[in-house]
Amino acid sequence: MFGGINHMFNDLVPPFIKTIKEANLLSLMVFYANVYRVPMSVDTWMLQTLLRRIIGYHGLIMSDAEAMINLHMELQVAKSPWDAGSEALKVGLQMKFSPAQPAVIPTLIGAVNETQVAALVDDAILQMLAIKFATGVFDRPCANSRPP
Prior knowledge:
Elements: H1 4-23, E1 27-30, E2 34-35, E3 38-39, H2 44-54, E4 60-64, H3 67-73, H4 81-91, E5 95-97, H5 115-134
Parallel strand pairs: 1-4, 4-5
Antiparallel strand pairs: 2-3
Helix pairs in contact: 3-4
C-alpha cells in the first residue's frame, strides 16, 4: 500500500474505525494488501494491536479467499501451507472464507498436540459459534428437516 501508516490513518482508516465501533460487527475480513511489505494476513500490529487493542474489536477475523495460501504460494513468506495457516492463526485470523483448494486450515489437523495452535483453533470455533447463536442459526430447526 502506497503512503503507509500516515496515509492510512489520515485518509482511509477513520470511517472504518467509526463503523467497527458503532455497528458492533460480528466479523471482519482482512484483504490482500500489505503495509510496509507485511501481508495483512500475518500483520500482528494491524490485527492485534490496532484492531483488537486500540479499536476494541472482539469479533471473528477471517481471510479473503486465497490470502492464507498466498503467504506460501505467491508471497513466499511461509515455508508451507501448514506454516501459512499456523502463522495466520497465531496472528489472529480465525477463518478462511473460501472453499477453494488447496486448503490451509485442514493442514493444521496434525497440530492438535501443539497447545498454542489447539487453543487458537478452539477460540476460532467459539467465535464462529457465537456468531451462529447471535444470528439465530440454532433457534429453530432447518425448514426442510423432518423427524425420522
